[in-house]
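User: For this week's homework, look closely at the record that follows, marking any run of repeated tokens, and judge whether sequence predicts the tokens.
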Amino acid sequence: MRTAAVPTLPGPAGEAVAVHRVPLAGDWSLWRLSAVRGTGMPVSWLDAFVPPDPDAASEEEARAVSAAAVRALAARPIFVEAVTWQNPAVVRNWLGRFAADPDGRLSRRDQREALVAFLAQRYCAKNETIGFFGPVAWARFVDERSGLTMTGSGGLRSRSVYRETWAVDAVARAFAADPRAAAHLIVRRNPVCDLTGGVLRRPRSRPEELTGAEAVVAAALTQPRRVGELVDTCAGAAAALDRLIARGVVLAGLPIPVQEHPERDLRRHVAGITDPDLRAELTGRLDELDRSVAAVAAAVGDPPALLDALDRLAETFGAITGQAGHRDKPGTPLGRAMVYEDCRRDLDVTIGADLLDDLRTPLALMLDTARWLLAEISVEVERDLTRRYRSLRDRAGGPVALCDLVLAAGDVLNGMPGTAADRVGDDFRERWRELLSTARGAPARMSSAVVAPLVRAVFPAGPVAWRAGRQHSPDLLLRADPAGGRPQWVLGELHLALNTMENRAFLTQADDRAELLDATAADFAGGRFVPVYPPDAPAVTSRTYPPPAMDLPSHYTYWSYTADEGHPEDVDPLPGAGLLVTEEDRRLVVRPAAGGRPARLLEVLGEFLTALVVNRFRVRDPDGHQPRLMLDEVVIARETWHVPLAGIPTPENADYRHRELRQWLIERGMPRFVFVKTADQPKPYLVDRDAPLSLRNLARGVRRSRAEHGDAAAATFTEMLPAPGELWLADADGQRYTSELRVVAYDEMQPNESLCLGDEETRT
């Protein structure tokens, strides 16, 4: 396996640190390159929803101000275009007409004005990475400068349209369903099944020996082949192939792996059809789709033209597939179109060493505690998996297939109550209480000098059992001083065991993709196990992780745990049913059925463990009012209020201003802007206590959550920090935008020993 040649520089304690990383403190370093996520619309637009005097505004004035704000926003093409991309039905049904004639009558006014306000608060205050209303920019930690330096207009540098994998797959399935295509379909072994020595291993089945024509067909499918070619070369193949397909041993179709341009795979499949008439017909349909997608790309910036282009694309798609041109996201009423846009913001940022100095020790101490969490979860997960493995082994009377163990341990790998991650998470927060006991004042402040020895004692360093566990992604915000002083760091979320720049949107909008790929190769020089994710897995989308967009076939070892669509670079993954789990020296290991050197089970399951821990860094239990928490000068937790829904005043017949609800927020000391999370809205949304429509949305949300989950359910309110007056990102007109940095932290302590599986070992 190829190993990247990585230049190094001295680390803080004399160790070598790769040049793509900057030393932090202790055993930690940061990638020099980080992504800037932010809104595409300025936060000042939200002021239009606020009456001049929120305390004294009459009912009529509040309604008039709200209606005027909605009309003004609907008159902005950029807002209408954002809604067009996200939910074209809203634009088609009423917003488009209202935008064209904002003085016209708006039916269902209260509901629709509240929706516009809700969307405005998302587009103006919620950091995202999607389209022009969440464009990507880049920042770099540098050694030779100080402070924060920005170049660029803050507008858009480029816009790119991509296709959803699900939509391309729907076209592929429609083509495959045509009886004329039967001989031209691609047949391949189900990637999770193993055929070693003529013995077939399938998930949840005992090994069996294939004989006769079935054995001949299975042996012929060491590589995918067309049905017609296989039938022509193997006697009795047709009937045997049908039987193998019916049993799930062989898959037939036009597979579309998740990747940046899935349409290229489909065009390649069609180009291989030997029937010239069918090939020409299907190519013509692809050409028609290409023209429709090109029309969408040409219409960006023009909402009516964009809506028309999306509608025509949907018509073309529907004519080919018989399906609607959108799909519903699970659990939400929003539709997802067949295409999406990602954009590059015209902004480049450098962050000087003086700002990094403020962050070094506090962030390193936080990461030290995160390392303990991962190490302990490793131990506890292996303990739970061992019990589950022994039960399966005793029933099977021998080794257990990896895919069977994964299925049987779904509760463990999903962190259900009482399982390893849940137990360790409770212990983690209990240990953090010792650190929090040192906090003094309001806001609560801790000192690194006091906390550091406690961290070493309470969170002793240990090994992390999987490669991705050496990377973490803090979301960092900079709080600008309106008086011109040095900005202050604010820690948002700390995503564990994951480089959040593995989301495809960052790779496609990178100025230098090779830089990201080389940095990833350097961090995983010893290799990494990665499952091939099926496109229909709940967490899989076309533009986010998983699967990892920074994909390195030269470094990674792939395996299949179900009937996936294959790897986009035609890598042959290891079959999960042919990876056998055994216990050696009181540790679970995985070996191929064909024999070879083992790999540790937790290493092979690394990506599953990442999904288990990624959002488990929580230092405080939600409990009443919790003040802002600082470690030195870094804000490591914002001020929060956790309250039962039953205590929030939301009467159905409240006046339009929701004065009682507003007063309730004020009495609890909440600032004007807070983010709210309830059971019915797991993603936080902004509430502006001075905007009647925002209060209306909060009241409706609380009532809905109470109806679904009962009065015992709770809502969590979190201060908006930085506040609107403390934002640093501005465009050429001086308009301010919320933003955050997606940063990658790297654990220099973890050894880069060999990654083994099979006859050869990965070399470091």
